[in-house]
Amino acid sequence: MPAKGPRGKVHTVADRCKGCGFCIEFCPLKALRASGTMNRGGFHFPEIVTPDKCSGCNMCGMVCPDFAIWSEKLISEKDESES
Amino acid sequence: MKKQTKKETPLSIEPRPQNPIESLIRMERLPHMWCPGCGIGISMGAFARAVLESGIDQNLLSVVSGIGCTGRVAGYLRLDSFHTTHGRAIPFATGLKLANPKLKVVVYSGDGDLTSIGGNHLIHAARRNVDLTVILVNNLNYGMTGGQFGPTTPHEAFGTTAPYGNYEYPLNLPYLMDVCGANYVARWTVYHVRQLTRAMVEAMNKDGLSFIEVISPCPELYLRRNRLGDALQEMVYLKENSRIQNGAETRSVAIEQKRQEIIVGKFVDRERPGYIQAMDEHLGKAMGARYQRPSFWEK
């Protein structure tokens, strides 16, 4: 039986974002989008659209110039898929 | 296991999630001064990840920067770092390495600092094959002073000091480093973060001079003045127009036009003896038993 639910988790620190959009463009699974709201600096920070899609590859974290987003692989998939 | 019901859940503040590379970055200094979309932050993140991946002792690692946008990296890294005068990052790093060869010394600076103001030092460090890792972030102009053209600006690109286009031809840095004798020469763009991180790990574990050129977008000055779009468009451009060619002939990898294919990869990886090894070997042979390493080296 294939594992269901998210395989990774995205963390964002909205106030560090400068809105360059690299994470949104280069997410291999297109799981991010620009938020409708703005952060302290007036930038549209990224938010996750479909948490189930995230694989925790950390591509967003690697291309972020401001260390504002990163993702981690979830060790235990069961705990998260319940919610 | 005790199961909490929803009513009993105590009021608590979730701890702020920690980016894994935060241990290497002075978070209290963020947000940094680089423009939105600047690639220097990406390269710095790649460097932090490379340090963590390689398992280098952080107490024996020091970062030396010159002046410029990239020169600020030394101030943002939570490592022993030094911000030198303009162009003199390599002389300082050479002295640091010779005073204490146990240290791993990384020179992290920009194209203007390392190739124009400190160009001579770069050439001679590669000729001597000093045991340094040089990471050169190339944003194709002088960023901090306002977009003047420099020795890496492509032909016919515009700059503050080249309002009708640059009529000079740029340096081909991998070729220069190759002919000067560096042990390791690679070029990656900030889009190739994984390869860049791997290259940094390789370079730091190598004796002799290792040189990595990192092509980075400069959205506010270079791209805007040349009407090449914003940082995101440039990143997509770098993704689509770069070709990985490991071991390519360095003579052919120049970036001379504003829009052209960028050849990236590991170009040179050879085993010439580094400066300290060459000194030991030669003086040991020439002086015989009289040769002693300096007592303060304590290797």
What's a concise summary of this model?
Chain A is α+β, with helices and mostly antiparallel strands and 83 residues long. Chain A has helices at 22-26, 59-63, 77-81, and strands spanning 8-12, 32-34, 46-48, 69-73.
Descriptive notes:
The complex is a heterodimer of chains A (83) and B (299). By secondary structure, chain A is an alpha+beta fold. Chain A has 3 helices and 4 strands, in the order βαββαβα. Chain A has helices at 22-26, 59-63, 77-81, and strands spanning 8-12, 32-34, 46-48, 69-73. In chain A, the strands form 2 sheets. A two-stranded antiparallel ribbon of chain A has the order 1-4. In chain A, strands 2-3 form a two-stranded antiparallel ribbon. Chain A is globular, with a radius of gyration of 13 Å. With 299 residues, chain B is of the alpha/beta class. Chain B has a single domain (22-291), classed as 3-Layer(aba) Sandwich (Rossmann fold), CATH 3.40.50.970. Chain B is built from 10 helices and 8 strands. In chain B, helix 2 links the parallel strand 1 (61-65) and strand 2. Chain B starts with 39 loop residues before the first helix and ends in a 12-residue tail after the last helix. Chains A and B meet through helix 1 and helix 2 of A and helix 1, helix 7 and helix 9 of B.
